[in-house]
Amino acid sequence: MNDSHLSHVERMMTPLRSSVAGALAMAALGCHGNAVTNSQIVAMAAIHFVNAVPDTGQMDYRVVDIASNASLFDADFRSFNSIYKGIEAGTREIRVFNSSTDPAISSQVLWDTTFAFTQDQGYTFVHTGFARVADQPPVRTVWIIPDTPPTPAAAQVGLRFIHAGAGIGPVDVNFLRKGSDTLPDTPLFANVAYGSAATYSLMPHDSFTVTTTSTAVTFTYYDTLRVVVTATGTKTPLLFAATVAPLGIPGYRDPLTQEDLNPVPGTAVPGTVLTALLVPRSVVGSPAVQFATPTVLYFVDKRPPNTAP
Q: CA 217 from chain center: how many Å?
């Protein structure tokens, strides 16, 4: 059980969450014409970046064919943007560089790819595999995966699983509701191989209660979803198990200002769709930030509908 207590100040400081629509709207704000500039509206797509390379140091990801805010800088292993960034639609050239204050190092191109981005479409840019020959296979590469999240029904959320765990064999994946639940004989996502993205699955949202006082709102969460990953065809040992995050915050009315606040995406908030992306442990002794066990990173592919005007 988790308690989330939100005073007026805390809620106002909560970072902006958005999905494709939010990313595109924000990216286009500065692109509307007026009587002076008559600027053209720019067609936008949206993108997640993730560094899933477990045996090398910081990298920079950026569009190089035009000026763009679509980027991820100083990205250590497991760095990512869970909320979409806007990227200009059309054919874009994206390069991956070493990250350094030394121009001789930061100009070194590690990957160069060109991809056609469709307007209003979301994508996940996954940099994965091993950089050092001694650690290969699999060899370092880039996947650009189109995101096609469904629209959950009332009281539902959606989840997808991507296997980007270099060096980890095929896995079975389940999302369980209670700590006492046992693994089913038939996994939700079975035999997911490295490089595969399972389809989205819909399920009930996490349960919660709301307590409101004159100054704050408190959410108490129950029966939160847990992701459990095992080797294909096995139930033990567990490769990874943890509560699915983020839980999110349902829309509510601030008791101080009487302002209606929109929901923050998460597994407790109906309408949310997330991707869980498996990444491996770090290679011991490599320049990568060191992590001893695999984990799952979460991306917001669709945010819940607004509840405020």
A: 27
Q: Residue 157: phi, psi to the nearest 5?
A: -130, 165
Mean model confidence pLDDT for the chain: 88
Structure tokens at 46: 């949206």
> Which residue in 308, 273, 304, 284 sits closest to 82, CA to CA?
273
Give a three-class secondary structure readout of the chain: CEEEEEEHHHHHHCCCCCCHHHHHHHHHHHHCCCCCCCCCCCCEEEEEEEEECCCCCCEEEEECCCCCCCEEEEECCCCECCCCEEEECEEEEEEEEECCCCHHHHCCEEEEEEEEECCCCEEEEEEECECCHHHCCCECEEEEEEECCCCCCCCEEEEEEEECCCCCCCEEEEEECCCCCCCCCCCCEEEECCCCECCCEEEECCEEEEEECCCEEEEEEECCCEEEEEECCCCCCEEEEEECCCCCECCEECCCCCCEECCECCCCCCCCEEEEEEECCCCCCCCCCCCCCCEEEEEEEECCCCCCC
pLDDT digits (tens, 9 = 90+) for 129-150: 999 988 889 999 999 999 999 9
Summarised one tens digit per residue, pLDDT across range 8-42 is 333 333 333 345 555 555 555 455 555 555 667 88
Residues 6+ apart with CB under 8 A from 73: 60, 61, 62, 99
Contact 109, 83 (CB under 8 A): no
Full-model pTM: 0.85
